[in-house]
Amino acid sequence: MMTTLKATMMEINGVQYYVRDSGAGKESVLLIHGWPDDGNLWQHQITALLENGYRVICPDLLGYGLSAAPTDVNRYQLANLVNDMIRLLDKLEVGKIHCIAHDYGAVIGWELAAHTNKLKSYTAMSVGHLAEFFKISHENFQFQWIYFLNIHDIAPQLYRVKNGYLLREVLRSHPHREEVLNNTLKPGVLENMQRLEKANPVPNYLLAVLGGELPEPVQIQVPTFGIWSSQDEVLWESQMQNSGRYISAEWQYEKIADTGHWFMLEQPEQTNKLLLNWLKKHS
Known about the structure:
The chain is an alpha/beta fold. It is built from twelve helices and eight strands. The longest helix is centred in the middle third of the chain and has 16 residues, at 155-170.
């Protein structure tokens, strides 16, 4: 089904995005991937969505996949990436959409839900509301080491050395690990992806939290669905489970058992059933 989507390079706010778009459907669904994936992450969901009559819009994030990778780190700031998604939807002339997002894509999705009127519903996979993600605790720090590492210049070298030994460990539960490794270990790819993390450094946000410098989170007024997986090795449950505190609209939480961070690939049938039931409910 991936090959049935029209793929094009689109200029969005001065940069080139690689966008797949089925072009038609009863309602539109925006799919936003995370690290270290690209739009291919959604191959099983795209099939299910198309079979059920939805229009699918699937960009590669800036610095990922076939999209541009500008060298200016500031271009990857969260506000700019959110504006890119808004501009993309405007250029495609779609009305309100459903958004489904994973990992760093989910961070963008939370901001779209909080600060725009573009969404009919939002589904966050793995990453919960940032107000929960940035809560300070010993449990959280056990998982957050990777976000401290990934902003350093040496991180791409560490991931690449010894034929990607460390990256293999980090991606040990990825169902398409070898394919992702083959792409990610190519010269410059890790550096391109790293700019998103350098532009939005988790340690700086944690410092701002401890210093009381972050504003109160905006209540989300969009029906929101959070999905977490019981064997997620990079994220903890409370940051998703407790995200309903920041949602004034409907909040639904589901935990998929016996699967890891990339559950949309590992358990596609269960994932698609949850997604289609949710979308049908909010169509």
